[in-house]
Design brief:
Bactericidal permeability-increasing protein, domain 1; 38% strand; 2 domains; disordered N terminus; alpha+beta
Length: 436
C-alpha cells in the first residue's frame, strides 16, 4: 500500500511531463506509447533531476520556451503603441516552491518561482508629433506563479480536469525600448507604465494557453484509468471501502489484544482474552494530503473508527495473591483515530521515513459481569479499569502499527521499484492500471 502510494504521487506529477519522443516502431507496437516518452524513463529522469542541489525546471515538461505571443496594441492620450514579434523567454527556468495535493478533494495547489522572465519584440509608437519603432525588452524578476487545479467525477463515473485557477505576479520590472529618441523624455510618465502594460496585455494569453494545455494533458492521462467512480462519494472514499473489505477478509476484525498486567498500589491486575470488535469500520476522518517542498514528498493521513465494542477477562490479586477476585467486562470505545506522517526524500536514495504517528482513543465505558456483591472490586473497576484498558489498547495498537509501517517503509526503494516494474509502467495496460 505504501509503495503504491509513493509511486502514485510521482505519477501524479508526471501528467504534464511527456515528450513527443516515441519512435514510430514503438507507436505501432504499443498504442499507449503514441506521442510520449516511456513512463519509467520519465520517472527516473525526475528522480535524478531532484538529486541536484538546486533543480531548475522539470525534465520533459512541454513548456514552449520561448513562447510566441500574438500581436497586441495599446492606446494612450498622445498616441498608440503596437507590439509584434513578441516572445517570452525563461518559462522553462521555473523552480517548484511547493505542491500540495488534497486527495479527497482531488485538488492540487502549486507555486512556482522564476528568477527572471524576458519579453522581447518590436514596437511601433505613433503620436500626433511623429513616429518611432524598434526592438524592446521587458524584464520581470522574482516571478511567482500560483495554480489551483481540480478533478471531478463526471456523470459517466470517469474523472475530468476542471478549469484551472492561475495567476502570475512579479516583484520588479525593467524595460529597454530602443530608438525612442526624444520620446523617452517627452513622454516619460507614459513610458514608465509601458512595461506593466506589456505584462498585463500578455498575461491573459499566457494563462489561457497554460490552462488549456494542462487540462488537455491531464484529461488525456485520466482517461486511461479504467476504474469508474460513483459521483456520490469521493474516489478516495471508494478506495477506502475496498480496503475495509480486505481488512475484514484478513481476519483482523475482531482483533485479539495481547494480555496485560500491571500493579496499582497493593493490587495486581491481569487483563486477558481482550477482543476488539469493529476495527474494520475505519474511515477517513480528515483529508489525505501530500506536499512536495524542498525536494521531499510528505504525506499526512488520518483514519478513524466509529464506536468500538470489546470484552475482556479481569483478575484482581491482593496481598500477594491471598485475596483474588475475577470476572469479565464488556466495554465500548467512542472512537479510535490514527494520524500518520510519512516523508520521502527525492534528493537521496533513502527509504521513506515515518516522521510521526499518533493514536487517540475516545472515552471508554465499561459494564461488569460476575462481580456479585458491592465491594472493593466494583470501586476499583469504576475508577481504575478504564485507564488500564486504555493502556492495553494503546500498547497493542500504537507500537505494532508503528513497527509495521516502518518495516514496510524500509523495504521501499523507489529506483528498484521503478526498474522492476518498468515494463508494466511503459505498457500501461488495463490490468496493470487496475492493480496500481
Amino acid at each position: 500500500m505504501i509503495k503504491r502510494t509513493l509511486v502514485f504521487v510521482l505519477l501524479f506529477g508526471l501528467v504534464c511531463c511527456e515528450e513527443d519522443v516515441a519512435p514510430p516502431q514503438a507507436e505501432a507496437q504499443n498504442p499507449t506509447l503514441q506521442g510520449q516518452k516511456k513512463l519509467s524513463e520519465n520517472i527516473m529522469s525526475i528522480l535524478e533531476h531532484y538529486k541536484q542541489e538546486d533543480p531548475v525546471g522539470l525534465p520533459g515538461a512541454p513548456i514552449p520556451d520561448p513562447m510566441d505571443i500574438p500581436e497586441f496594441s495599446h492606446s494612450f492620450s498622445v498616441g498608440r503603441m503596437n507590439f509584434k514579434n513578441v516572445k517570452m523567454y525563461g518559462l522553462k527556468r521555473f523552480k517548484i516552491d511547493h505542491i500540495s495535493v488534497d486527495v479527497n478533494a482531488l485538488k492540487v495547489e502549486a507555486e512556482l518561482v522564476i528568477d527572471k522572465l524576458d519579453v522581447r519584440g518590436n514596437y511601433t509608437l505613433s503620436t500626433w508629433l511623429s513616429r518611432s519603432a524598434g526592438p524592446y525588452t521587458v524584464k520581470l524578476t522574482d516571478v511567482d506563479i500560483v495554480a489551483i487545479a481540480r478533478l471531478e467525477v463526471i456523470r459517466n463515473g470517469s474523472l475530468e480536469a476542471q478549469e484551472i485557477d492561475m495567476d502570475i505576479r512579479f516583484k520588479d520590472i525593467a524595460m529597454d525600448f530602443q530608438n525612442l529618441g526624444f520620446f523617452a523624455n517627452m513622454f516619460q510618465g507614459m513610458m514608465n507604465s509601458v512595461g506593466t502594460i506589456v505584462f498585463d496585455s500578455i498575461k491573459p494569453f499566457v494563462l489561457a494557453e497554460a490552462n488549456t494545455n494542462i487540462r488537455n494533458d491531464v484529461n488525456k492521462e485520466v482517461r486511461k484509468i479504467p476504474k469508474t467512480f460513483p459521483n456520490s462519494i469521493s474516489p478516495l472514499d471508494d478506495v477506502m471501502h475496498e480496503i475495509r473489505k480486505k481488512v475484514r477478509g484478513m481476519g483482523m476484525d475482531p482483533y485479539k489484544i495481547p494480555d496485560y498486567n500491571n500493579s496499582v498500589g497493593v493490587f495486581d491486575i491481569f487483563l486477558t482474552h481482550t477482543w476488539l470488535y469493529g476495527l474494520g469500520s475505519f474511515h477517513r476522518t480528515k483529508d489525505v494530503k501530500f506536499e512536495f517542498r524542498n525536494r521531499t514528498i510528505r504525506a499526512l493521513l488520518e483514519v478513524g473508527t466509529g464506536t468500538i465494542k470489546g470484552t475482556s477477562n479481569w483478575e484482581i490479586s491482593l496481598v500477594a495473591g491471598i485475596v483474588t477476585r475475577s470476572g469479565s467486562v464488556a466495554f465500548s470505545v467512542d472512537y479510535i483515530r490514527s494520524q500518520i506522517n510519512i516523508s520521502q526524500s527525492l534528493a537521496e536514495d533513502v527509504p521513506p521515513s515515518l516522521d510521526d504517528i499518533q493514536v487517540e482513543l475516545g472515552n471508554i465505558q465499561i459494564r461488569f459481569d460476575g462481580l456479585g456483591t458491592v465491594d472493593y472490586a466494583i470501586e476499583f473497576g469504576v475508577n481504575v479499569l478504564p485507564n488500564l484498558l486504555r493502556y492495553q489498547i494503546m500498547d497493542a495498537l500504537e507500537t505494532p502499527i508503528k513497527m509495521k509501517i516502518q518495516e514496510a517503509l524500509d523495504q521501499v526503494n523507489m529506483n528498484k521499484i521503478i526498474h522492476e516494474n518498468a515494463e508494466k509502467l511503459d505498457n500501461m495496460k488495463i490490468e496493470e492500471l487496475q492493480n496500481l
